Amino acid sequence: MAKYVAAIDQGTTSTRCMLFDHAGRVAGVSQKEHRQIYPQPGWVEHDPLEIWERTQEVVEGALAQAEVKPGEIAAVGITNQRETTVVWNKRTGQPYFNAIVWQDTRTDRICSRLAEQDGQDRFRSRTGLPLATYFSGPKIMWLLENVAGLREAAARGEALFGNIDTWLIWWLTGGPHAGSHVTDVTNASRTLLMNLETLDWDGEILRVMDIPRSMLPRIVPSSDPRTWGRTSKEGPFGEAISVCGDLGDQQAALVGQACFSPGEAKNTYGTGCFMLINTGNQPVESESGLLTTLGYQIGMQPPVYCLEGSIAVAGALVQWLRDNLNLFDYSKQIEDHARAVPDSGGIYFVPAFSGLFAPYWRSDARGVIVGLTRYIDKNHIARAALEATAYQTREVLEAMNHDSGVALKALKVDGGMVHNELLMQFQADILGVQVVRPQVAETTALGAAYAAGLAVGFWENLEDLRANWQVDKTWQPKMDSARREHLYRGWKKAVERTFGWVEES
Known about the structure:
7-stranded mixed beta sheet, alpha+beta, 23 strands
């Protein structure tokens, strides 16, 4: 009898498999990191085959840890780092190039070239997205223009494109032996190639970008009772299990946080930081630098749309302090350093390592630390790094309040950084609203499990999922409004110092 749903959560720095029971409790988990490849400044790559290898290892690890047999798994759901682009040979499964990661900025000139006609918002009315290095379409263009023989292989129908969800589903369901080549509406909405109204690839945009439609996966609902395929017996599950749930990581967190009503919002603190608000069954065009994106689609029901504020660097800044500057040995130690000082000593750290995302969309920006004096030590830098995430979140929240017409009174939070108590209190302080952490803070994997479980009837409806959501801790704002606004004005001034650093050569 099926007792669990498996979720594969493939993130920017690691891959994990989590098993959930009907109450949404974690029954088993296994996680492994993969390499970050930086061939030159601004370039970020992953090895797709390493990610597939890690995926197999964590599936086997989670099953072993929980002592769960494959026959007890009802379905498999996938959630993934979005926009990260893989192109591979459909006969061999060999990638033509490393995966180009969402943070990568090598497509800056391609985006500028596309923007020569009608500007950065050339495709926004159809896709909800500005022309930016963030999205998959320009990355596919770069691969077709720079990888020898790839355009010819694509013309022959041998080359397949996918974000990481598509890559893993293809391998899980057989790979070169009739693996399913699909992506869900949420991941498709991050390519700059999907029309928000039709939920299909936009022929005009494909023509402009010169991308063959034959490379692209079939677009399917996020939770699909038709099932795209079953895990192969040669794969890590060892038995045929339905693969029928797929959500980009931030949309998965929205589902895991049970934000099913218009106006409900969540913020995920991971490698980057991403706030989504449910806007219902119609797309809302942003006037404030936010993205219009798909939230989820359950079966053949009408799709649910969101506004999203995307922040490129959050937890990645903590990793940078750990790995590049050797400020501490373990990421969690940043809180000890930050608590060693009463405040950040007047400095601000704007981590525009690959430009600024929402609400600015400035690819010419680069990171700065401003306000330095001889008084500053590594503890102040650690605290300023944490505060940067909270300040960026406020910028996004203000844009969201403006576009949605709803002033949020509480923010649901999730992701690895929400266990940092100092950060969560400062977040409540700088927002002036309460911050709420659920009992299951890793809601990304939970959302993928929900999508798969709904498809096979493991959970009957959205009310079942709402019933699983429980509060773990709430932070109330304690800072007085005068200090809040003083600190925020300093942040805005610091952000301005990042603009225009990169000049067109």
